[in-house]
Amino acid sequence: MVLTVIGYILVTIGVLFLFLGALGIFRMPDVFTRMQAGTKATTLGALGTIIGVGFLQPEWIWKTLIIAVFIAISNPISSHALARGSHKIGIKPYLKEGGVDTYAEVDEGVKEA
Amino acid sequence: MIYFLLIVMLLAIIFCAARGLLGPTASDRIVALDNLTTITTAGLVLLGFVFQRFIYIDVSLIYGVLSFIGVLTLARYMEGGL
Question: Are residues B8 and A15, on separate chains, in Cβ contact within 8 Å?
Fold first, then answer.
């Protein structure tokens, strides 16, 4: 009974964060801000949903934990590769007044040296 | 309760697919695709609980591995290193 309540709470939090991540993907103005909203919120949402299902069905907990660990490892790696690739093909970040793109300065320094 | 959660997840999929259709550059579409695969991995586990089928967990695990490799390949191809 307690496990069921904890599982429903975790699944609800997870699905809510999945929805917020998708909303951030839709609303943000730029590739990098979209990636930031999408990846972090979606990782938390997927972890909450999958571990919540593991609490709801206690005999499935080991395989759900394997999926959760794999998502926690693989999602930041793919988002890092995407951010590096899109900065390298020349997409400028969305900057306000006084914003600094430090990665571009480091890249220029490497090219000059 | 669980059907309401599935409807919220469907709304998330609709928003991500809209960004994938509208996105101005190629990397926008790839970011939307990455998030769609993560949402699908979680959604398959939730559907496995709804239908009480253990096989959906295995399908979700294999889907997660294959989508990770696919997104990584697309990112390298976009960068020009492949």
Answer: yes
Closest in A25, A49, A60 to B32, CB measured: A25
Range(s) of the domain holding residue B44: 2-79
- Sequence ranges of the domains in chain A: 2-112
pLDDT at A113: 62
pLDDT tens, B14-31? 999 999 998 788 889 999
> String of b and e for A85-112 (b: at least 16 CB within 10 Å)?
bbbeeebeeeeeeeeeeeeeeeeeeeee
The verdict on a CB contact (< 8 Å) between B45 and A70 is no
Residue A38 clears pLDDT 80, i.e. is over it: yes
Our count of domains for chain B comes to 1
